[in-house]
Design goal:
Length: 189
């Protein structure tokens, strides 16, 4: 699997030839950004899960910047951000709002009177700017619970993703070790 994935990853020279990426070739060419080991991949998944909940179109850019800063797998972090998309954003924000509402009393904050989660209302004839405006109004109407819950949910998902990748990687290694040991036993070596 690693060989297949590596065949699609760019090398440092292709980054230098790209006119948009050439100024950043030294930074983006760092080997840790492209490694496929358990810590780099787990970090890439964690960064992607965290950046996926950043509102607006800044998710991939945020994932790239965080990957460079933390030296984790860059392509994986960018791909993982796609878990939040137009189909999943409302349920994710509902969970974040509920998470924020749950944590607010622990922080000594009170819920506003009559506050409840509601889906965004976007007019059918709204163009892109109207759609973005309606989405921004919806986001700000959800208030403090969302403002508190969104970063908490992002951190929680990032932590769970990191642990899940490390755990599944370890499970895969242990399974392969046991298979090899079993083959050695049966072959008489």
């Amino acid at each position: 699997m690693k060989k297949i994935i590596r065949s699609y990853l760019p090398d440092t020279e292709s980054l230098r030839r790209n006119r948009w990426l050439a100024p950043f070739a030294d930074t983006l060419g760092h080997p840790r950004l492209w490694r496929l080991n358990r810590h780099s991949c787990a970090g890439g998944v964690a960064v992607g899960l965290f950046a996926g909940l950043i509102p607006g179109p800044l998710q991939i850019l945020s994932a790239a910047l965080l990957s460079v800063l933390l030296r984790v797998n860059l392509p994986l972090a960018m791909v993982v951000t796609f878990y939040s998309n137009p189909l999943t954003i409302v349920p994710l924000y509902a969970v974040a709002w509920a998470y924020g509402r749950l944590v607010m009393p622990l922080l000594g904050l009170q819920m506003p009177e009559g506050a409840q989660f509601h889906a965004p209302v976007i007019p059918d004839d709204a163009g892109f700017s109207g759609w973005m405006h309606a989405l921004a109004d919806w986001f700000f109407a959800l208030g403090e619970p969302l403002l508190i819950g969104l970063p908490l949910l992002a951190l929680t998902l990032a932590g769970l993703g990191y642990v899940a990748v490390l755990g599944s990687w370890r499970w895969h290694l242990v399974r392969n070790w046991r298979r090899r040991a079993e083959r050695r036993k049966t072959s008489g070596c």
